[in-house]
Amino acid sequence: MTEHLQPGPHLDADQLAAFAEGALAGWEREQAMLHLAGCEACREVLFLAQIAVQNPAEEAVVAPAVIVIPTPIWRRLAPLAVATALAACLVTAVLVLRPKHPVAPQADVAQVAPPPAVNEAAPADRPAAPQAAPRVHRPTVQPTRQPAPQPTAADASSADQNSAVAANRAGAADRIAAAPAPLGSVSDDASIENLPLNNRNAIRLAAPQPAVAGMAAGTGRAVGALVQPLPASPLGLRIEHGQTSTGEFAKIAGTVLDPTGASVPGATVTLRPAAGAAPTQVKTDARGGFNLAGLPAGHYDLQIAAPGFATVTRSLDLQARDLALLTSPLQPGAASETVTVEAAAAALDTDSSTLASTVQAMTQTVAQGKRILGLDPDGAVSLSTNRGRRWKKVKPQWTGKVVHIAASGDGFEITTDANAVWLSQDGKHWRQR
Amino acid sequence: MDSAPAQDGLGEAPPSASPAERAGIPASAFAELWTLAEAGACELSEVEFGLALAASGARCRFGVPPAETVSPDRRMAFYRALHLKELALAQACALGRDIAWRRFLESYRSALTQAATGIAGSSALGEDLAGALYAELYGLKERNGERHSPLAGYSGRGSLMGWLRAILAQRHVDRHRRTHRESPLGDADFAAPPAATPASPAELTQLNQSVGRTLGRLQAEDRLLLASYFLDGRTLLELARLLRVHEATVSRRLKRLTGEIRKSLLKDLQAHGMSRRAAEERLGADPRDLDLNFDLNLRNILQTSPPTAFSQQAGKT
Questions:
Q1: Which of A70, A363, A415, B97 pairs as cysteine with B43 (C-beta 3.0–4.6 A)?
Q2: Interface with B, mutate which of A1, A3, A5 (most B CBs under 10 A)
Q3: Residues of B with CB below 8 A from A38's CB?
């Protein structure tokens, strides 16, 4: 729209170029678009000029477009603030969701499964003994973890609730797992609540609420999640009384995990009643979970087996309407343990075993960083690209046997029995000197 | 979008003013711009550079809307955002400085020829186009007895190469229109509307008015998008490059726009006495029929400026 190029109200080349490069101010860009929307001629020129932009040689000449109006500082800092906020959220999420047991799940379970001796009441002033200290949660931990009753109509009988809960605790004192441990050894992190129960956590924490409400309503039902003493077994078990709604039956729900915390699907869970009845057997689902419902009160032996893992067993007593929540971190099977081995799981790494013998038989090795070149007594050369973990025979491009290998610069050098010297940078591709 | 008259801080400096005063900025800031532009290397004097800055700023009101006053800070921000080196080079070339021309040819000759080839579609035509533009840029054409170079019109807001491409495109269109006759579109190019019953003249008038009202309510960018896509037949890729968005974004916007236009048209037609069924018959069942059914309407309404600009220009260039 200047007199230089075109008469009339058309966009001039300067405006077209600035528009195409996004260098116009907002209001000016708006006006330019209004004009372009109605002016076929200017659109034609604009798109025609855009055709030539695709040439990379020209792009090198074109400087990046510059925004005319300076952006306010707060707007320029906005992306930084958003990024910072996201990072803060991420860190918070990591801190909150981070497993509180930095050690393996086996160690976790051991912490909540103290030897029976430590279940006895220990004097508070007993000196802390790191090895024998039962790092179990205090019996009072569970009640404190129950959600506080909401300020509803049930508040009117809160005193009754407290007394009822206290009575319930007293009545079930023999079922409470551990006595108060020495102060130095008691840790909330070691409590069973922190075990990776996957989706069972929600049930466990939400379940007490209706029970407390039921108490407030005067049903007299036994409430309060109580923790059974845990034997020296890698099973995390928690029994909540009066939590099922299936008549007078109890229920067991659990998750089978491997040492890394991943779920183990297809594990076999066998529940044998002590009364000699037929055992019940279920398989864990894709998330490693299982459910055994409709169980009469009594003594049971629970066994969990999975291919490649050590079988774990434990006994438990269930009362009517008990809900047993269980987490079983399975350990990989050892030679001395009972391991169920299935045919499909018995695949051997024949490659590794073969090459391991190769490594043992090698008479000479030369290392270049991660790459190791080995020579066996037969004059064959093997190469490992991962510091000797795996080996692969080098296809000989030479004739005869290799009698000597050596490092050559950054690569390797071999000498055959015909005195031919071959060089390679990577150990795979060789050329004759 | 013509340049606004001198007001609101855009007043012209007296002839005896210093270069910094001409540009309307402090002397220290002017010295900084002078250094950044490397204007001395192009044999451009400070006065000439100051005049170029002032002309560039006045041409587009320093990027400030007409209702606002140009503050010194805004003026300085505008100057800093310019392609100062390229502005100095273009001004020096327009003034006929040999060293500037040498630098210009070194930097842009190859790219200009390639761009001309791309625009013209053939190497021979492209070289002709580029050669003609060189002559024009060098100022071989005189206006009112004075040597005139289009490079004097470069403001420095966009890149010099982008400006050269736009000039090339304009010249190519001018040449094409000088040497070719526009062939009218055949009737077969427009598909017949699928409506079963032909529209009466009154309905067509109502439809035209409704389309005008609906399109008039669209934003400028949406109108540009519709016109480029439906009238010019531009591809999604071309539109995406122009608007600096992804092709999928353009596609989604077009789909949304056509849907909204259809809804808006239906409402508008019903609001003006047409039954819904009749309105739908006029529009067709599919929003994508919009470009078929209303191609002429769109062209009439969106194409507000007369398509004679290049024809007029053809006789003058």
A1: B97
A2: A5
A3: 223, 227, 302-305
Distances in Å between the Cα of A154 and the Cα atoms of A215, A245, B92 are 9, 21, 89
Domain annotation covers residue A339: no
Q: Does residue A198 sit in the same domain as residue A315?
A: yes
Half-sphere exposure of A172 (CA within 13 A, CB side): 25
Domain identity same for B137 and B45: no
Alpha-carbon distance A170 to B178, whole Å?
105
Q: Which of B60, B119, B303 sits opposite A48 (nearest CB)?
A: B119
Cβ–Cβ gap B114/A57 under 8 Å: yes
Angle at which helix B98-120 crosses helix B160-179, to 10 degrees, equals 50
What whole-number distance in Å separates Cα of residue A18 and Cα of residue A7?
A: 19
- Give yes or no: residues B201 and B293 share one domain: yes
Which of B163, B236, B241 is the best mutation test for A, with the most CBs of A within 10 A?
A: B163
pLDDT score of A219: 36
Q: Do A47 and B172 touch (CB under 8 A)?
A: no
Is residue A243 very low, low, confident or very high in pLDDT (cuts 50, 70, 90)? low
Q: Which residues in chain A have Cβ-Cβ distances shorter than 8 Å to B172?
A: 48
Pick from B119, B153, B303: CB nearest A38: B303
For residue A218, the enclosing domain spans: 105-121+137-329
Is A99 inside any structural domain?
Answer: no
My answer on whether A112 and A34 are in the same domain is: no
Q: Give the DSSP per-residue string, A12-31.
A: -HHHHHHHHTT-S-HHHHHH
A423 and A285 within one domain: no
Where residue A359 sits, what CATH number does that domain have? 2.40.10
Q: How many CB atoms lie within 10 A of CB B255?
A: 12
Nearest chain A Cα distance for residue B231, angstroms: 9
Q: Are residues A412 and A314 in the same domain?
A: no
Judgement on whether residues B23 and B111 belong to the same structural domain of the protein:
no
Q: What integer pLDDT is reported at residue A137 of this predicted model?
A: 38
The answer on B75 and B103 residing in a single domain is: no
The range of the structural domain enclosing residue B242 comes to: 197-302
Please give the sequence-ordered ranges of beta strands (E in DSSP) within chain B, or none if there are none: 142-143, 146-147
Tell me whether residues B161 and A10 touch, CB distance under 8 A. no
Residue B65 has pLDDT above 50, yes or no: yes
All residues of chain B having their beta carbon less than 8 Å from the beta carbon of residue A36 are: 224, 227-228
Assigned domain for A417 exists: yes
Q: Among B46, B66, B91, give the residue marking a domain's end.
A: B91
What confidence score (pLDDT) does residue B89 get? 92
pLDDT value of position A305: 86
- How far is CA A228 from each of CA A178, A242, A244, A328, B133, rounded to the nearest angstrom? 9, 14, 17, 16, 93
Average pLDDT, chain A: 64
Cross-chain residue pair A47–B107, CB shorter than 8 Å:
no
Measure the CA–CA gap between B3 and A378, rounded to whole angstroms: 90
Same domain, B136 and B221: no
Among chain B residues, the shortest Cα distance to A52 is held by B115
Take residue A222 and report the two structure tokens written for it: 């036994």
> Mean per-residue pLDDT for A265-282?
82
In this prediction the ipTM stands at 0.73
Say which of A31, A32, A68 has its CB closest to residue B63.
A68
Question: Using the beta-carbon criterion (under 8 Å), do A66 and B107 form an inter-chain contact?
Answer: no
pLDDT at B199: 62
More confident residue, A68 or B230: B230
Of the residues B53, B69, B91, which one is the last residue of a structural domain?
Answer: B91
Per DSSP, the three-state class of B140 is: coil
A311 and A359 co-located in one domain:
no
Distance from CA of B277 to the nearest CA of A (A): 31
CA A236 to chain B, closest CA, distance in angstroms equals: 53
CB contact under 8 A, A38 and B78: no
* Shared-domain flag, residues A175 and A291: yes
Q: Do A54 and B242 touch (CB under 8 A)?
A: no
Within a domain: B35: yes
